[in-house]
């Protein structure tokens, strides 16, 4: 309480001295400059490139021409883009929404009242998946899923089963779920700590079942956490490039999510202008998703 | 306010310090050069990397010293997929950076030249590049690899050819001759069926798909196209969904479409080509279509990536037949495709003349003989080839029988994109699409790449 009252007073006195605005500006200027240089400028540059026929090599690399919305029209008319968009929806729904949120919450719920070594071991293992670099764990999973000599096939006794080739989307969904569950688990672990034990206690005394406790006491309390978690990991998953390391989008574009699609057309295919246009579309989708979630969050809170 | 100025100052100083790190700290009269290729000690093309680092650099520095110049050369290694190497080079050259002497694939010359990334040698390093002694030893066709729009952009480092490799041990098991030479595609399929009956896991493997990039074109669809009498580009028009392409894609379907002759999965994996190399070396693949790199760099008993100690006894090779005798391009019975790498001078080099001297030095007879001592290959120089190829049966075979009937890819800037579309067509067939449909899709994509249906012949 004391802190809450002291803050406005400090700001007021700075304003009274006539130093507030310039001083604040001076403090945030370096941050703003960095954001402008590393975020705003590249974003604008990508939008501009999307309007040209810029290429990595060839005549259009030396003198790119302005082609208006051609690239955007081409992207939307291109089956490859829609294929990737649909795969990305599966990727986000499968690994972020169903996999990470449900699994992360379930683990957090099961561990909520436990103490001691078991909890620490489980948490440690799950967190390990999250803190290791994506490139490293990708190679581990490639070895794990390899059709000849892969650990998973050896364990299941099905040598020669080509996970990454016959089920590329399932493979990357499982991989991403495994990798990202830790973040959700930690978030829900913290959130569950904020649910007043007295509420749960009275619900229990009133004879509420486990599911009723969850639905009527826990979820209303952590709704904000769930939505924040959904927003963050949906966007992370949406823009995740690690599937490239597992399957490079193949075979035959069957796991080419949008981030991989952009890489394949822009850098491997050398079509920087077209790739920039697809990136711009992805940026717009990100904005729409973010705004949707934030609205939801505001309404619920 | 003061504090933020301080922060800015710290940033600025750090920035300057970082910039300073990038600059050389040696004397003003030392000439520093860098040379790069997609080669790395202990990895990809290790022998080439070792040769540059251990022989070329000390010898070149000593030769320059004798002329009174202090030259320091640094080798910049790389050990990645060719596609990644190309992307990195393009980005380097675009931002006016990169090594002074650079190796590129011959087929990138057109698009690099059009982008201004490479320039004619005489423009970069002076007219004396035209009077380099080596040119007189390099055959016209090989010089053509380094020529774009009538100007020499680079020094050709070598050329190559394609054959069918086969495992003689497996052939013996299947009752096939050790001096096998198929005369039609049907004879390849027949041999494949016999291998299959004899229990060979993968009887035939021909490169397909997008995962291995240009390898699919050079060691797969282009030789097949040539064998069916087709050329990817002829008389100013690109070949679309014509019969030869349908025939070539049809052969892919025969091999990968459920017959059990080939392993379609191997063509779809990101590292499929490396895997098929390993499987051939393990005696699991009967017939493999590859270039001479396979012999020199893959199953080479001393420094291959999938060494075969008994290579010379076990690995046989045969010319690639036309679909039927006399039905190949130019009415040939047998076909091949050739390419080659180039070594060029970065137009942004601070010391272009010395950089050219370094490039030329790597192509001196002494350097080539030294380089090919352990790992012989077809060099661009006739004088050197005469001396070094005699000891190697495959390279003799290629230089005598294959190179006279080989074909080259069109030296046009759009070719790599066309090639990628062709790889896509093979990928579709391998994953189950009908050859006619894949050919039609290819034609539609081709028209978009080469400026409309008017430039396509079907």
Automatic annotation (TrEMBL), chain A:
<dbReference type="InterPro" id="IPR035906">
    <property type="entry name" value="MetI-like_sf"/>
</dbReference>
<keyword id="KW-1003">Cell membrane</keyword>
<feature type="transmembrane region" description="Helical">
    <location>
        <begin position="91"/>
        <end position="112"/>
    </location>
</feature>
<comment type="similarity">
    <text>Belongs to the binding-protein-dependent transport system permease family.</text>
</comment>
<feature type="domain" description="ABC transmembrane type-1">
    <location>
        <begin position="86"/>
        <end position="293"/>
    </location>
</feature>
<feature type="transmembrane region" description="Helical">
    <location>
        <begin position="222"/>
        <end position="238"/>
    </location>
</feature>
<keyword id="KW-0472">Membrane</keyword>
<feature type="transmembrane region" description="Helical">
    <location>
        <begin position="272"/>
        <end position="294"/>
    </location>
</feature>
<keyword id="KW-0813">Transport</keyword>
<protein>
    <submittedName>
        <fullName>Multiple sugar transport system permease protein</fullName>
    </submittedName>
</protein>
<keyword id="KW-1133">Transmembrane helix</keyword>
<dbReference type="Pfam" id="PF00528">
    <property type="entry name" value="BPD_transp_1"/>
</dbReference>
<dbReference type="InterPro" id="IPR000515">
    <property type="entry name" value="MetI-like"/>
</dbReference>
<feature type="transmembrane region" description="Helical">
    <location>
        <begin position="21"/>
        <end position="48"/>
    </location>
</feature>
<keyword id="KW-0812">Transmembrane</keyword>
<feature type="transmembrane region" description="Helical">
    <location>
        <begin position="156"/>
        <end position="178"/>
    </location>
</feature>
<feature type="transmembrane region" description="Helical">
    <location>
        <begin position="124"/>
        <end position="144"/>
    </location>
</feature>
<keyword id="KW-0762">Sugar transport</keyword>
Automatic annotation (TrEMBL), chain B:
<dbReference type="Pfam" id="PF01547">
    <property type="entry name" value="SBP_bac_1"/>
</dbReference>
<keyword id="KW-0732">Signal</keyword>
<dbReference type="InterPro" id="IPR006059">
    <property type="entry name" value="SBP"/>
</dbReference>
<protein>
    <submittedName>
        <fullName>Multiple sugar transport system substrate-binding protein</fullName>
    </submittedName>
</protein>
<keyword id="KW-0813">Transport</keyword>
<dbReference type="InterPro" id="IPR050490">
    <property type="entry name" value="Bact_solute-bd_prot1"/>
</dbReference>
<keyword id="KW-0762">Sugar transport</keyword>
<feature type="signal peptide">
    <location>
        <begin position="1"/>
        <end position="22"/>
    </location>
</feature>
């Amino acid at each position: 309480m004391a802190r809450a009252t002291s803050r406005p007073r400090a700001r007021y006195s700075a304003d009274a001295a006539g130093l507030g605005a310039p001083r604040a500006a001076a403090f945030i200027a370096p941050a703003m400059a960095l954001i402008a240089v590393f975020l705003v400028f590249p974003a604008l540059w990508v939008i501009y490139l999307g309007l040209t026929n810029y290429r990595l090599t060839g005549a259009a690399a030396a003198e790119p021409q302005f082609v208006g919305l051609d690239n955007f029209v081409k992207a939307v008319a291109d089956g490859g883009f829609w294929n990737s968009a649909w795969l990305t929806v599966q990727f986000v729904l499968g690994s972020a929404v169903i996999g990470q949120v449900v699994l992360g919450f379930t683990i957090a719920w099961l561990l909520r009242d436990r103490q001691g070594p078991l909890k620490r071991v489980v948490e440690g293992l799950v967190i390990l998946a999250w803190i290791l670099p994506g490139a490293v764990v990708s190679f581990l999973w490639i070895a794990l899923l390899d059709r000849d000599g892969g650990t998973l096939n050896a364990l299941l006794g099905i040598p020669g089963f080509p996970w990454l080739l016959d089920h590329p989307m399932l493979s990357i969904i499982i991989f991403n779920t495994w990798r990202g569950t830790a973040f959700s688990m930690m978030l829900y672990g913290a959130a569950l700590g904020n649910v007043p034990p007295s509420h749960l206690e009275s619900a229990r005394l009133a004879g509420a079942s486990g599911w009723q406790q969850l639905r009527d006491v826990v979820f209303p309390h952590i709704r904000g956490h769930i939505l924040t978690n959904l927003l963050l990991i949906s966007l992370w998953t949406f823009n995740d490039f690690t599937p490239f390391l597992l399957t490079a989008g193949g075979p035959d574009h069957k796991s080419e999510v949008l981030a991989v699609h952009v890489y394949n057309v822009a850098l491997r295919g050398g079509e920087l202008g077209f790739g920039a246009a697809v990136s711009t579309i992805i940026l717009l989708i990100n904005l729409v998703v973010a705004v949707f979630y934030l609205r939801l969050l505001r309404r619920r809170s | 306010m003061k504090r933020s100025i301080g922060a800015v100052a710290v940033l600025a100083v750090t920035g300057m310090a970082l910039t300073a790190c990038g600059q050389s700290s040696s004397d003003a009269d030392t000439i520093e050069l860098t040379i790069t290729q997609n080669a790395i000690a202990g990895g990809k093309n290790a022998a080439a990397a070792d040769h540059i680092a251990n022989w070329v650099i000390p010898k070149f520095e000593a030769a320059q010293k004798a002329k009174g110049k202090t030259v320091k050369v640094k080798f910049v290694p790389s050990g990645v997929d060719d596609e990644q190497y190309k992307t990195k080079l393009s980005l380097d050259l675009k931002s006016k950076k990169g090594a002074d002497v650079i190796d590129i694939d011959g087929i990138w010359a057109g698009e690099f030249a059009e982008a201004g990334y490479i320039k004619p040698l005489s423009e970069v390093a002076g007219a004396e590049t035209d009077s380099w002694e080596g040119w007189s030893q390099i055959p016209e066709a090989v010089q053509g690899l380094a020529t774009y729009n009538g100007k020499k952009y680079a020094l050709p480092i070598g050329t190559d050819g394609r054959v069918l490799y086969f495992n003689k041990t497996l052939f013996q098991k299947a009752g096939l001759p050790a001096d096998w030479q198929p005369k039609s595609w049907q004879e390849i399929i027949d041999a494949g069926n016999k291998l299959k009956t004899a229990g060979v896991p993968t009887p035939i493997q021909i490169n397909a798909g997008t995962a291995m990039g240009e390898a699919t074109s050079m060691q797969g669809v282009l030789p097949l196209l040539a064998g069916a009498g087709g050329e990817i580009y002829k008389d100013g028009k690109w070949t679309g969904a014509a019969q030869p392409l349908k025939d070539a894609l049809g052969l892919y379907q025969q091999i990968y479409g459920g017959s059990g002759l080939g392993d379609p999965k191997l063509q779809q994996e990101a590292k499929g080509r490396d895997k098929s190399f390993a499987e051939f070396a393990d005696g699991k693949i009967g017939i493999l279509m590859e270039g001479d790199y396979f012999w020199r760099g893959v199953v080479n008993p001393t420094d291959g990536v999938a060494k075969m100690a008994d290579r010379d006894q076990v690995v046989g090779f045969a010319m690639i037949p036309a679909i039927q005798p006399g039905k190949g391009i130019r009415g040939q019975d047998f076909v091949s495709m050739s390419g080659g790498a180039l070594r060029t001078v970065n137009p942004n080099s601070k010391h272009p003349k010395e950089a050219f001297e370094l490039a030329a030095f790597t192509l001196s007879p002494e350097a080539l003989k030294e380089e090919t001592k352990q790992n012989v290959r077809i060099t661009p120089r006739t004088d050197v080839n005469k001396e070094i190829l005699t000891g190697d049966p495959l390279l003799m075979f290629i230089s005598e029988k294959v190179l006279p009937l080989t074909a080259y890819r069109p030296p046009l800037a759009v070719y790599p994109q066309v090639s990628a579309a062709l790889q896509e067509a093979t990928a579709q067939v391998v994953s189950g699409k009908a050859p006619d449909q894949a050919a039609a899709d290819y034609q539609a994509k081709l028209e978009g790449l080469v400026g409309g249906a008017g430039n396509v012949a079907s």
